[in-house]
Each structure stands twice: as C-alpha cells, then as structure tokens.
Amino acid sequence: MAKTSSIERNKKRRAMAARYAEKRAELKTQARDESLSLEERFQARMKLAELPRNSSPVRIRNRCEISGRPRGFYRKLKMSRIALRELGSQGLVPGLVKSSW
C-alpha cells in the first residue's frame, strides 16, 4: 500500500490539471501560433509559466485504484499487476483465469 500522502497528492494534481486544462490549452495554442507577433507569443509563454506546476498533466502519476501502487500499472484496468492477480485469484475479474504450473 502506498503512502496516503502520495495518493492524496496525486488526486490533487488530477483535480488541478482538470481545472486548468482549458486555460493551458488556450495559452499553448497562442504560444505556437506563427501568425501572432513575437511579443504576443512570448507573453503567452510567460502566462503559461505562471500557472501552478501541478496543473500540468505531465506531473500526474498513474496509480492503482486499489493499492495506490505506482509501478506495474495496467491503464485499461486502472490497477497494478499485484491487485489484478489478487482479484483474479478470488474470481472477481471476469474472463481472467490464474495460471499456475
């Protein structure tokens, strides 16, 4: 089980990224727009840099919904390999059969 603080910090980052997504996308398009003047593009980059760091989606870490584990993460199932194996052994994941030899 991951530290509760790590899990909560990641939740905070997800919420902040969702809140600033529209503003961040708008500033990025302005910064890349070749039709604008150099000063306007620079101002857009400066405003982008003033946004909170945790509002960037790059800072979000994929974590298991069950245990909070950051590694061995399956995106499709939103859980780690260990949690998947435990649930599969209990028969809670449809279509998953635990193999052993």
From TrEMBL:
GO terms for biological process: translation. One of its GO terms (molecular function) is rRNA binding. The keyword rRNA-binding applies. One of its GO terms (cellular component) is small ribosomal subunit. Keywords: Ribonucleoprotein, Ribosomal protein, RNA-binding, rRNA-binding. Binds 16S rRNA, required for the assembly of 30S particles and may also be responsible for determining the conformation of the 16S rRNA at the A site. NCBIfam families: PRK08881.1. Part of the 30S ribosomal subunit. Contacts proteins S3 and S10. Belongs to the universal ribosomal protein uS14 family. This is Small ribosomal subunit protein uS14.
